[in-house]
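Below: protein 1.
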Amino acid sequence: MTLISQKIIYSLWKDFGLEFSDSTMIFEVNGKITQSIEKIGGKSETVRDKEIRLDIISLPFNVFLNSNDYLKRSVVDLKKDTLIINSPNLPLSLIQNQTYINFQQENDNYFFSNAITFSKFIDFLEDQDQDQEAAFHFVDSVNTASRRMVFTSPTEKGRVVIEYNNKIPPLNTTIDYNKTLQKFEYCFLDQLGHLPKFLKSALIEQASRTSKDERIVKLFLNLDNVIETAYLNFEIYLNNLSIDHIRRDYDEFKSKYFKEVSEILKNVTQKIIGLPLVVASTLFAMDRIKANDAFLIVLLIIIVITSAYLTVLLRINFKDLKYVSILSDKDYDELKRNKFFIKYPEELNTFQSIKQRISSRIENLKIICESYFWILNIINTLLVSFILFYIGIPKKITLIIGLIILFIIAFARNWILNSAEEEKL
């Protein structure tokens, strides 16, 4: 019935409307108007046969010319069915808490719901100013006459003043802010203990970022962030955990493992830097003693021993890298298993990046160690081949010996890597 009545009023206004005030709609004189108004139970009078005045209060619903006239706390708190003519745009209707656009129901439009929710939000904050002996007050003082609230920080010196008025701001009609308000109200249930204290701190932090004239609106729009921050800090409190403390501990962990990896890198770097000098010295010695088979054999033995030593050294380096990798993984996994990070996994991002850097360094160092191993052993294989050639070994046999050496080197490399991977702490 209300929907039909609103359609009638809307049609009359479009066809015969002249003036609109807070309580009166003025139409052209027309017999159809009086009959239609009486049909829906409204009261009207004809003035000097020039105009018909409709008493809006007599209607079973509110009527407004535009949405700005509706967006007032004194209006939305009445919780009454409403018609907003909204000319030249499509009319808006609130009928039994359902929104209608052009008299068609729209479940995804939250114009009316959000206006009511904004007013309920302010009402809820005003209700928190309770005269009680409890040490904690969410709102420290409220003056409803001047529309002013004061929040004093429970942990830091300072306070925030929030001012509001009868006007309700235009809100995004595609977002249901009532869900957020319900989450906000849920934070005050007794079973959550100290959560309102953290909610108050988060609210003060959010409100202090904006100027007084837009503080209440910004706070309402960012209520989700306030709630999320409060829950986050509450979880830190419950877990006896401090983000700064964790970062400090993890920085020590980072420094510790970076230092160990750097020491290994330093040792390998020194050998790489000295490689050209060693090769040059060996070639010079070979050139000077190439006519003396005995000295060449001694040099051959030295090169073989050097290669064997290098193989052992590579195994030690890989074991050290594996050790560092396992320890860093264990420390990281212990941190990750904390209940706080299970509930707020996004807070682990900082530590994930540190862990990734350590793992990346270890993998890069493994590549450097293996590259050095192959380069030096291939060079040593070539030097052995030159020595065999100088001694007088046929080229064919020398080639076969070189290939056998490379096979042994490849086997040694695989054995080193596999043993390092299988070894446990």
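Below: protein 2.
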Amino acid sequence: MSEFSRILELYEELLNKVKLQEIQIERLRKQIAALSEAIQGQAQQQQNQEAA
């Protein structure tokens, strides 16, 4: 295998890993957003109960 072919193969491997990480990061962002909304909702509910 020529050096160029090996470099190209490594580049493609790295690119695929980066794409996978981007997908994982996006999933984590969505999970964080959902958890944030849930926490804010609980905090609001608790404030309403304390006010009542």
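The helical segments are 3-51.
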